Amino acid sequence: MKTSDFDYDLPPEFIAQTPVEPRDGSRLLALDRHTGQMEHRTFRDIKDYLRPGDLLVANESRVLAARMFGKKIPTGGQVELLLLKKISDRVWESLVRGRRARAGSELAFEGTSLRAEIKAVMATGERLIEFNEPVEGWLDQIGIVPLPPYIHAELKNAERYQTVYSRYIGSVAAPTAGLHFTPELMFALREHGVEFAFVTLDIGLDTFQPVKEENLQDHAMHTENCSLSPEVANQVNRARLAGRRVVAVGTTTVRTLESAANLACDVEGNACPYQTVRAFHGPTNLFIYPGYRFRVIDAMVTNFHLPRSTLIMLVSAFAGRENILNAYEEAKKRGYRFFSFGDAMFIQ
Questions:
Q1: Three-state SS for 79?
Q2: Integer angstrom CA distances of residue 271 from 12, 32, 260, 277, 318
Q3: Could you tell me if 177 and 299 are in contact, meaning their C-beta atoms sit under 8 angstroms apart?
Q4: Is 123 exposed, middle or buried (0-12, 13-18, 19+ CB in 10 A)?
Q5: Exposure pattern of 325-343 as b/e (b: 16+ CB <10 Å)?
Q6: At a CB cut-off of 8 Å and minimum separation 6, what does 52 contact?
Q7: CB 188: neighbour CB atoms within 10 A?
Q8: Three-state DSSP class for 203?
Q9: Pick from 178, 156, 154: nearest CA to 167
Q10: CA 346 to chain centre
Q11: Strand 299-303 to 67-73 pairing
Q12: Cα separation of 254 and 113, whole Å?
């Protein structure tokens, strides 16, 4: 398949700049992936599409306050850092913006004892930054939660870019399909008989990057760390054995579950008859696009994704490319809001 097969036109006015209040007041497009039929509801109505016994699995990764401002020593020139990946206790891979931010440059951060040195410039342009102490202890004081590059409005409440169930700090972008849930909605779903489970996948900046290669098979998928505990593996395996649906909240949850399913297969790719997924902690670079055979999920909650992105390719693999592109066109006609702070889809 070609990357251009997943392109579509989206005028800027469709890109949501601010979140809807309350969270579950966003719109919901429900898509039947078998028939292509669509229904238009409000997100709090998702209870009408979930069944008692469904296992709803979500990503509880929390967004790191990864954007920092420092000054070069001794010139005082301002430098902006965006922490991307923790390499060791004091070393981070980072994006750096500032004049002459070369290897050997030393940085200070106002009001703190924190210092840093740019140790190396990587081939892709990122820098390796070594701090004089673990940086995490300072982020609440000097760090800013980064927003996607297509959001230009100021976010007044940083918690609005976190899910209400987020726990483990590690992402530089939110698992945005989960932003629509409120504690009250989650309680109502539990009362309805829906079971919850949580995995972790730490989202990197590459999630916003369009695929540049025209042939999908030539794309090198970025690697992200994820975790699925033995307890959650048991929940998933019990649900599958009982014939209950597994519903993923977001593409990151899908990739975590499907990565865990691939680990439960033998060397010839045959699934274990008693184990759909296997517990694991580690990296995944699973690239899901049309032709992929899903082993775990029966339905998913997702947002409307960027053109030519790995995310629109994943949902197209699940629902069919024509169904997804038709749904996106219908969403534009009806004034839906797109991307991170936008509206949601439920695909079954």
A1: strand
A2: 44, 26, 11, 9, 19
A3: no
A4: exposed
A5: bebbeebbeeebbbbbbbb
A6: 192, 193, 194
A7: 15
A8: coil
A9: 178
A10: 16
A11: unpaired
A12: 41
**Does the pLDDT at position 268 exceed 70?**
no
Cβ-defined contacts of 260-263 (< 8 Å, 24+)? 260/228, 260/233, 260/236, 260/296, 261/295, 261/296, 262/286, 262/295
pLDDT tens for each residue of 203-250: 987 776 778 899 988 998 888 999 999 999 999 999 999 999 999 999
Backbone angles phi and psi of 303, in degrees to 5: -100, -175
Whole-number Å distance between alpha carbons of 348 and 207: 24
Backbone angles phi, psi at 50, to 5 degrees: -100, 140
Find out whether 277 and 305 touch, Cβ atoms under 8 Å.
no
Q: Quick one: which of 310, 306, 309, 348 has its CA closest to 328?
A: 306
What would the mean pLDDT of 19-40 be, rounded to a whole number? 98
In angstroms, the Cα distances linking 164 to 18, 59, 184, 188, 260 are 17, 11, 11, 15, 25
CB 321 within 8 A of CB 305: no
Sign of the CA dihedral 226, 229, 234, 236? negative
Quick one: which of 166, 87, 170, 100 has its CA closest to 130? 87
Separation CA 116–CA 127 (nearest Å): 12
How far apart, in Å, are the Cα atoms of 233 and each of 23, 274, 280? 29, 12, 9
Give the model's pLDDT for residue 272: 73
Separation CA 41–CA 115 (nearest Å):
51
Token pair of 20, please? 């809807």
Tokens of 81: 């850092």
CA distance 109 to 326: 49
Residue 179 CA, distance from chain mean position? 11
Q: What is the three-class DSSP state of 197?
A: strand
Buried/exposed code over 204-216 (b: 16+ C-beta within 10 A; e: otherwise):
bbbbbeebeeeeb
